[in-house]
Design brief:
Elements: E1 2-7, H1 11-26, E2 30-31, E3 40-45, H2 50-68, E4 74-79, H3 80-84, H4 86-92, E5 98-100, H5 108-116, E6 122-123, E7 144-148, E8 150-151, H6 162-166, E9 170-171, H7 174-186, E10 191-195, H8 204-207, H9 212-219, E11 226-230, H10 239-247, E12 251-256, H11 264-269, H12 276-289, E13 294-301, H13 308-321, E14 325-330, H14 348-373, E15 377-386, E16 391-395, E17 407-410, E18 420-429, E19 432-437
Length: 441
């Protein structure tokens, strides 16, 4: 049986797709990159915000067109969109043959067989149950991979549907995380990207204490070159964690910590537990403890109670704290969330306009950051060769895959993907750093 997978949304979703792929291969199925000619196409969806829902539906309709043309056999929809809109999918998208929720990835083989046999296929289980421990097939280049250490979220931010799609926060047992990490290292993974909806809370539910610093110290004993951290929650960043990041050489001095906003009224309404002064103090402490730290964050424009003064405050805050990496997204009111029923919200067009204004502010911050790096020799992990620019491409500790751009560099010898090399940064190209291989005689 030929099975193809389409993975949408975040890298946590990617891990689930990799797990389903491994289970299908173990069952004797053949994975196919191109959906055309597949007996079953599995679409692992995101249902977090409107744009993600639209992308998922567009993919379902595209596969439906291939199915109608006889180029695809069956369509199985999994993931967050299925969990959130199971009835709507089955009643309004007749091209879909089966659906599975976010707690059923381990039943993928059963589901594939059911849709192939024309049997009813609807698999949903307790989203607050223990995290499934499943094998994986990596879909990233072999030199980097994502390591998911927990599932779900218990922060209950007022704008977010994640708890209703993925359940409460559940840490994976440390021995399971480390066993998977060792397998990744043994496969040749050099950059281990630690992910969860909130990695700072790791261990609280299982061990009654925050165990992330201990986990990181254990990961540093494995054969990784870099360990990168996504995503931290501000009010649970401890001194022990910062000291661990500072003192462990393998941990990238790079922290992805979404703050969403800085205005105290907006933060309180969104059930965030930090304040503007608290964020300012935390950034100061982080930079003092971790020299060379590169910060990333996510921001939401147009949230309830974000009047013009609150938005101006956000822009001024960004100019002040100079976060090199930041993405801004317009607020998407999601049904079932407290924020969707709140007053004092700007319309969608204005929220989008404000996100664009934040991007302009951040472009200047980014330009200043790139300018400050000129002349530096930095360690770069090569991702390959770019035929368009005729330059090698890679990333330093300051660039996470797919979200932060890349470093372009020239070299008089071949540089292999997965190789770490020193690069002297000499300029920029379309806002991206450019350099040359630096090798002392």
């Amino acid at each position: 049986m030929k099975v193809s997978f389409i993975s949408l949304g975040c890298d946590k979703n990617r891990v689930n797709t990799e797990q389903m792929m491994a289970l299908c291969v173990d069952a004797g199925m053949t994975l196919q990159g191109d959906p055309e000619g597949s007996d079953v196409v599995v679409i692992n969806t995101c249902g977090f915000i409107d744009s993600a829902k639209s992308e998922a539906i567009d993919n379902i309709l595209q596969m439906g067109a291939l199915k109608e043309a006889g180029l695809v056999g069956r369509i199985l929809v999994t993931g967050c969109l299925s969990q959130r809109y199971s009835e709507e999918i089955m009643s309004e998208l007749p091209e879909v043959d089966g659906i599975m929720g976010t707690a059923n990835y381990g039943r993928i083989v059963e589901a594939v067989n059911e849709v192939m046999q024309g049997k009813p296929c609807r698999h949903f289980a307790d989203i607050n149950g223990a995290v499934e421990e499943l094998p994986r097939i990596l879909t990233t280049p072999v030199h980097y991979a994502y390591l998911r250490i927990a599932e779900g979220c218990s922060n209950r931010c007022a704008y977010c549907v994640i708890p209703s799609l993925r359940g409460k926060y559940r840490s994976r047992p440390m021995e399971e995380v480390l066993a998977e990490a060792k397998a990744l290292a043994d496969e040749g993974v050099k950059e281990c990207i630690v992910i969860a909806q909130d990695i700072t809370r790791y261990g609280v539910d299982l061990y009654r204490e925050r165990k992330l610093p201990e986990l990181l110290r254990e990961l540093c004993k494995l054969d990784f070159h870099w360990i990168r951290l996504h995503y931290l929650y501000p009010d649970t960043v401890s001194d022990e964690l910062l000291d661990t990041i500072a003192h462990e050489e393998k941990i990238c001095k790079y922290i992805d910590m979404p703050i969403q906003h800085c205005n105290d009224t907006v933060l309180k309404a969104m059930n965030r537990r930090e304040t503007k002064d608290g964020l300012r103090a935390l950034y100061k402490k982080m930079r003092e403890k971790i020299p060379g730290l590169v910060l990333r964050t996510s921001l939401i424009t147009g949230l309830p109670y974000e009047d013009e003064a609150a938005f101006d405050e956000l822009c001024d805050f960004l100019r002040e704290v100079q976060i090199p990496r930041a993405g801004a997204f317009p607020y998407s009111p999601e049904e079932g969330t407290p924020a969707a029923a709140m007053p004092n919200r700007v319309d969608t067009a204005e929220a989008q306009h404000r996100a664009e204004l934040v991007a302009e502010v951040q472009s200047r911050v980014m330009d200043a950051f790139n300018e400050s790096r000129l002349g530096d020799v930095t360690e770069v992990l090569c991702d390959g060769f770019d035929e368009q620019s005729m330059l090698f491409v890679g990333r330093s500790y300051a660039e996470s895959p797919d979200i932060d751009g890349r470093i372009y560099f020239s070299a008089e010898r071949e540089v292999r993907a997965g190789e770490f090399v020193p690069v002297r940064l000499t300029g920029t190209m379309d806002g991206e750093p450019v350099g040359e291989l630096y090798e002392e005689e």
